[in-house]
Design brief:
By secondary structure, the protein is an alpha/beta fold. The protein is 26% helix and 25% strand. The N terminus is likely disordered.
Length: 262
């Protein structure tokens, strides 16, 4: 008799909405998550997430932690990016487990590739509550510099990353992992229709972009591919004008299942 897989059938999104704080460790400059240590920010995150349960949907909190940050300078390896300290990542791994939260490791790879960077965090991604986010805005081609151009990624590179991550989860008989692809322009993900569905992964197209409600809705409807992905939506505390309220987010169609605050 073969091995019985107990966890792979347990979906992340089962009448559930995930609500995340986004940022990096130790600084508020990249998002609200870094405004305070995990134990201090978690009550604020729970309060932000609570209204999303009004319609009877279950809510789970998420820390979306930028672990590789794009840089304007090449650095010693020429990648135009750097990893945050492993000790900082471990702090969020422990906090997520303690608080029954998910941890999403967000990658801004500069001129490196998503698979190359992701594999440096295999030690964390082996944990059942840790997933991955790819941010093509910061995936630079040859001669491109973060902050001077909007980056992009090909479907083949996304598939290479997702295949590796799905294999990691499968070998460890883990529940579904979240894999997020950030996007606010159609050209940020080349040949998006070729991105493969992966058993063991809940794949999210996370629509970024700040502005007025009408601008954000236009972006959402321009790039969304709800038949291919679970849908995500980002809210910016400082940059958005007329910030969407939770009840307004819940009324969006196609339905949003992942909400992050920056």
């Amino acid at each position: 008799m073969g091995t019985v897989r107990l966890h792979q059938s347990r979906p992340v999104f089962d009448r559930r909405v995930l609500v995340a704080y986004y940022g990096t460790a130790g600084t508020s400059s990249l998002g609200v998550l870094g405004e305070a240590p995990p134990n201090q920010i978690t009550p604020r995150l729970r309060q932000a997430a609570k209204p999303y349960g009004q319609t009877g949907r279950r809510v789970r909190i998420v820390y979306e932690l930028i672990v590789t940050i794009a840089d304007a300078d090449p650095g010693s390896d020429g990648s135009y990016s750097h990893d945050i300290a492993q000790s900082s990542v471990k702090k969020y791994v422990r906090a997520a487990r303690r608080n029954r939260a998910l941890l999403i490791l967000d990658l801004q790879p500069g001129r490196s590739t998503f698979p190359t960077v992701a594999k440096r965090f295999a030690w964390a991604l082996r944990k059942p509550h840790v997933g991955l986010a790819l941010d093509p805005e910061w995936r630079m081609g040859p001669g491109e510099v973060p902050g001077q151009t909007v980056g992009s990624v090909a479907a083949r590179e996304v598939n290479k990353t997702s295949g590796w991550l799905a294999g990691l989860a499968r070998r460890r008989d883990q529940p579904q992992k979240v894999l997020i692809v950030h996007q606010f322009r159609t050209d940020m993900v080349r040949h998006i229709g070729r991105i493969k569905d992966r058993t063991g992964l809940a794949q999210v197209q996370h629509v970024d972009g700040f502005g007025s409600q009408s601008q954000k809705l236009a972006t959402y409807h321009n790039v969304e591919r709800h038949k291919q992905f679970h849908m995500g939506f980002k809210l910016f505390y400082d940059e958005d004008s007329d910030l969407f309220r939770p009840r307004e987010v819940l009324r969006l169609r196609p339905r949003v299942e992942y909400v992050s605050y920056q």
